[in-house]
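Our platform keeps sequence and structure together, in a single record for each protein. Because each token names a local backbone shape, the row as a whole describes the fold. One such record is reproduced below, unchanged from the form in which we store it:
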Amino acid sequence: MNEKSNDVKPDLIPGRNPVSEAVRSNRPIDKILVASGEKSGAIVGILAKAREKQIPVKEVSKTKLDMISGNAVHQGIIAFAAVKEYSTVEDILEYAQNKNEAPFIIILDEVEDPHNLGAIIRTAECAGVHGIIIPKRRSASLSYTVGKASAGAVEYMRIARVTNIAKTIDELKEKNIWVYGADMNGTDYNDCDFSGSCAIVIGNEGKGISRLVKEKCDVIVSLPMKGKINSLNASVAAGILMYRAMKDR
């Protein structure tokens, strides 16, 4: 027996029948990977149902599926299950309202490292954040690795996945939520007032906040840099800003 067959992560669902049942049962699924050129009727049916439910689907090589699955029998398709069901932005706002608190939200603009996402969830839970918003694509999702990195905090944090971060920011601003984007050459974070309804945007580990999202922010907030490196790890920057906001709140 190939030892790698025992290395399948708990959030992986390999094989046509298991993936089909997961999609049919409305189990939270982050994405589906399918072998390039796969045209079998069973897989075509699965992908049609997945697209109806807006589950991201990506074609990859069979070799990559073999590697990801630890050489388990995948039959050309693998699903990545979420460790927890996603919330909605409305759930987050309702939670803040029920606590009689001004909304305190973290928005992640294409943060792709699952360890960063897990660390941010952990800090957010400790800092009193009401919820986290992530995009459906080009982002780490609620995988087993994220759950483990969050040290269990994922169970207590409301996390919403949206199609368009920029549009979601517009909707939050319509609800009088002030949006702060973490980036260089902005207002010193010590000079900002986070005491009201606020959302803090943290950008991608390498590219930072995208241009359109940056333009949507009410304030660009920066952390002072004294060394030769001009940026912090995304989860570290998020942690500093969350605790600065908690102090105001």
Notes: Residues 43 and 197 are 45 Å apart (CA to CA). Residues 1-7 have pLDDT under 50 and may be disordered. The radius of gyration is 20 Å.
